[in-house]
Each structure stands twice: as structure tokens, then as C-alpha cells.
Structure to design on (493 residues):
């Protein structure tokens, strides 16, 4: 079996970017390649064709590789439900809960499922590009690790460590990542990649040469920072607005819920040239917007309470009364209704309930069974498709038709994630909002799928130009070089 593990000095160092870019670059060389991440912690997820749920990043990486996304590419998905607990998805289906108190014991059974999924992919594809999680040098968790060096040891994978130079301390982070590992782990770390460099790469050369001398390992390239490199994110670390260049464009305010999920739903709005998208956490942030978006959330009742505590429920109701529009997606849609109940304690305490914003004739009841499906239909005279991931049953009353929900007097609600990626539907919705608020706005003709493909090609181009792709492919096929130096202090462990 041939494969490569892309690890990182920290979370958000660029593991997903490098993994995605290598999938596209290897595919261009005619290699049958699959992405893989043993365990993903993210509330951004996607439904595969078989109805299973995986992290959004692995779904996009499969597109980069030119293969059909499947649950084996992300066998364990942890979806944070609070500060100390996560809901578990195993091979695409609900698999209980883990907490900080039972983090080691509660995950022990997941390693077998994760490694079996990797072995399955390795038996069907020429190369598997595996993405690590966090840092491989979390030595406090090494005994139970099956995502980073635990996976590398299981499959004999060579490891490349990515560091983000934008954060500073790149060389110390790369060297320290290797040096703290035990000898058997160090033996698999073959080299490095620097990410997000701004400036002349020649300025890095002396440091890279010294890093090679000190570690005996290769730096396979330096990826530059690029303003148009925007991929579906797996966490909320990079939530930023998407600004248009038009002074009179439509203004969209996305409420930044504490437990926001599937915020990639609004990516398509950010691609519209005459639409400003900003993230809002206060009533003041929503001043002057035309459309408020209430996105998905992993904890609807808790985030609804947060909305009330910040005065946002009143601000949204006032916004609608004064002629603005609001779009609720999944958990956000549920908040727009009259009542939310959780009789079985799916989200927390059994019997919990709360009044919604009361802007739509709808009620939500949480059930233990999880809905996972792809959906399609027509709305606003356009074809629309999306996917559903929810426990709440959203029942609408006397309201207008809207995909996966309902609409009434500027209030739109849908349980379908991804529906805004349907170009005709997205632009018809924006036109309806513009008409309601009295703005001039014309559909742009932007095709979301083409824009995503262009971003994947851009990433593939950057990887081809700035990384030694041939050397990385050879590394994946032949494994880590023999007799790599073992660095102190890990050498003494």
C-alpha cells in the first residue's frame, strides 16, 4: 500500500490545503488517489451519496482527487456539542458521545474502525493522502492517538509536517515537532512544507538549509499566501466576511453563533460580485444589512438562548418589521419558528423547550433518530438541491412553499444545507430580497461549481509550482528514507 500523512505543527497550519493540493496534483499525473482523515473534529459536514456523513474538507478533497466522496475517507467525525463533549459519527452514522472526562477510554474503540477504513482505501487506490489532526506532537495524548503518528505507525506512512510561517516561529515549530517525538515516530517524519509565505523565498533559504542540517530532513517546498485560495473550511478559525467591490451591493449579515455549523452554506453568497457578507455577533453588527442569515448550529436551544442574551432576537424581529429579510438554515430555520422542544434530551436536558422568534408558523421537535439525506426540488422557479443533517423535525403550518421549509413575508427557512450552491435558486432568492428592500440587483451568472473547480485548479497549480510533487509522490510510494537522524530529547525516550 502507498500513502503519505500530511501533519501540521498546529491546527490550521495548512494540512487541508496541502492534502487537497496533492490530491489534485497526483490526479493530474494519472494516479488513482483518495483523501483520508482518520478523525475530524468539525461541525462542517456533508452527506455522501450513500447517506453517510463526513467532514466537508474530505468531501472537497475527494472532488480534488476526481473520485466519489465516501465515508471511509473520514471514518470518525466528532461534532462538538458543547465545551466538553462531542457527538460521534462512525462510518457516516451516529455513534454516541465522547467527553473530556472519558477522552482516552471513550475513543479507544474508534481506532479499529479508522484503521480498517484506511486499509480499505489503500486496497482500492494507488495512493492515499492522509491528513492529520492538530499536531502529531501532542505527547500527552500519544498513547491513544490513531490520527497522526498512530496512523503512520499502523500503515508505515511517511510523514510530511506543514508549518504556517504567517504565525511566526516556523523553524522552531518544525524542529520541535520532530524532536519531541519518540524514536519510532521520528523515523517516519521525512520532511517539511512551509505554508503561507509572503515575499521572496530566497529569504527563507538560509533557514531551510540550517533546518536540513539540524534535522537531516528535506523541505519539499514553500507554498505562497494567495488571496484567491479559499476552500471549504472544517472549523471556525477562519470566519471572515466576503466583501464585494460595489458600493451599492446587497448587504448580508451572518449571525456568528457560538456553536455554528456548516457555515460553508454562505460561501456561495460570498462569490456574488455585488454582495457583501459579514459575520455578526451583536445587534449593532446587523445595522444596515438587507438579509440576515441564521446559519446551522450544533446546539439550537443553547444558541437560541445566546441570541436572546445578546439582544439579537429583538434586532432580527425589528429588521423584518422594517422591511428586511431573514434566511434561516437548519438550526437557524428552527429558531425562526414558534416553539422548539427536546423531549428526549437529544441536545442536552430531557424536556428542554423554548419559544422561537415567532417569525414563521413552524415548530421543531428533537428526535433521537438523525436525518441524513440528499434532497432536491424546485423553488422560486428554479431547480434547487441540498443535503439534510439534523435531529429536529421541522413542521411548518400556513406558510408559503420553500425548499425544505417555508417562507412568509420576507422570512425564509430551509433545512437544506448547500441549497445556495444552486445558482438559479440563489440568484432568484437574492433578487427577491433586493425587491423587498428596494435595491437594484441583477443576477451575476456566477456558477458555483465552476468557481470551486477553479479554486481547486489554482491550488493544484500552486502545489505544482512550489512543491516537489514528484519527490512527494515517490515518498508516498517508497516510504520514509532509512536511517533518518533521531533528534534529542526524543532520542532518549
Amino acid at each position: 500500500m502507498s500513502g503519505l500523512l500530511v501533519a501540521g505543527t498546529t491546527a490550521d497550519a495548512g494540512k487541508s490545503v496541502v492534502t487537497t493540493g496533492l490530491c489534485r496534483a497526483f490526479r493530474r499525473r494519472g494516479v488513482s488517489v483518495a483523501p483520508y482523515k482518520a478523525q475530524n473534529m468539525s461541525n462542517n459536514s456533508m452527506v455522501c451519496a450513500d447517506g453517510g456523513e463526513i467532514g466537508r474538507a474530505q468531501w472537497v478533497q475527494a472532488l480534488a482527487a476526481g473520485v466519489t466522496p465516501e465515508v471511509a475517507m473520514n471514518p470518525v467525525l466528532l461534532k462538538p456539542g458543547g465545551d466538553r463533549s462531542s457527538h460521534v459519527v462512525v462510518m457516516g452514522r451516529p455513534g454516541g458521545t465522547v467527553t473530556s472526562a472519558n477522552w482516552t477510554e471513550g475513543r479507544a474503540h474508534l481506532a479499529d474502525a479508522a484503521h480498517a477504513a484506511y486499509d480499505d482505501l489503500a486496497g482500492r487506490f494507488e495512493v492515499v493522502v492522509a491528513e492529520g489532526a492538530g499536531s502529531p506532537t501532542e505527547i500527552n495524548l500519544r498513547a491513544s492517538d490513531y490520527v497522526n503518528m498512530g496512523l503512520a505507525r499502523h500503515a508505515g506512512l511517511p510523514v510530511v509536517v506543514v508549518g504556517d510561517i504567517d504565525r511566526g516561529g516556523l523553524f522552531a515549530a518544525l524542529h520541535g515537532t520532530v524532536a519531541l517525538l519518540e524514536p519510532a515516530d521520528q523515523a517516519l517524519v521525512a520532511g517539511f512544507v512551509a505554508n503561507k509565505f509572503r515575499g521572496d523565498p530566497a529569504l527563507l533559504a538560509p533557514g531551510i538549509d540550517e533546518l536540513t542540517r539540524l534535522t537531516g530532513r528535506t523541505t519539499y517546498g514553500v507554498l505562497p499566501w494567495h488571496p484567491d485560495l479559499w476552500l471549504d473550511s472544517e472549523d471556525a478559525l477562519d470566519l471572515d466576511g466576503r466583501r464585494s467591490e460595489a458600493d451599492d451591493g446587497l448587504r448580508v449579515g451572518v449571525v456568528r453563533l457560538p456553536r455554528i455549523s456548516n457555515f460553508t452554506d454562505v460561501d456561495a453568497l460570498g462569490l456574488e460580485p455585488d454582495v457583501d457578507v459579514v459575520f455578526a455577533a451583536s445587534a449593532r453588527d446587523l445595522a444596515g444589512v438587507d438579509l440576515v442569515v441564521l446559519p446551522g448550529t450544533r446546539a439550537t436551544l443553547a444558541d437560541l438562548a445566546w441570541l436572546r442574551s445578546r439582544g439579537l432576537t429583538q434586532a432580527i424581529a425589528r429588521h423584518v418589521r422594517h422591511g428586511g429579510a431573514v434566511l434561516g438554515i437548519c438550526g437557524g430555520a428552527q429558531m425562526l419558528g414558534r416553539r422548539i422542544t427536546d423531549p428526549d434530551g437529544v441536545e442536552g436536558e430531557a424536556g428542554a423547550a423554548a419559544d422561537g422568534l415567532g417569525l414563521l408558523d413552524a415548530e421543531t421537535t428533537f428526535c433521537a433518530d438523525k436525518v441524513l439525506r440528499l434532497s432536491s426540488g424546485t423553488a422560486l422557479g428554479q431547480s434547487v438541491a441540498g443535503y439534510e443533517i439534523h435531529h429536529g423535525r421541522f413542521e411548518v403550518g400556513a406558510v408559503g412553499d420553500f425548499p425544505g421549509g417555508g417562507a412568509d413575508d420576507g422570512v425564509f427557512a430551509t433545512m437544506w444545507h448547500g441549497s445556495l450552491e444552486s445558482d438559479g435558486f440563489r440568484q432568484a432568492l437574492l433578487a427577491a430580497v433586493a425587491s423587498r428592500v428596494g435595491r437594484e440587483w441583477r443576477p451575476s451568472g456566477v456558477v458555483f461549481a465552476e468557481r470551486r473547480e477553479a479554486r481547486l485548479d489554482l491550488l493544484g497549480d500552486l502545489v505544482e509550482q512550489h512543491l516537489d510533487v514528484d519527490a512527494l509522490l515517490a515518498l508516498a510510494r517508497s516510504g520514509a528514507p532509512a536511517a533518518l537522524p533521531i533528534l534529542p530529547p526524543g532520542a532518549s525516550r
In short: Residues 448-466 form the longest helix (19 residues). The longest strand covers residues 362-379. The CA atoms of residues 208 and 219 lie 7 Å apart. The two ends are 29 Å apart (CA to CA).
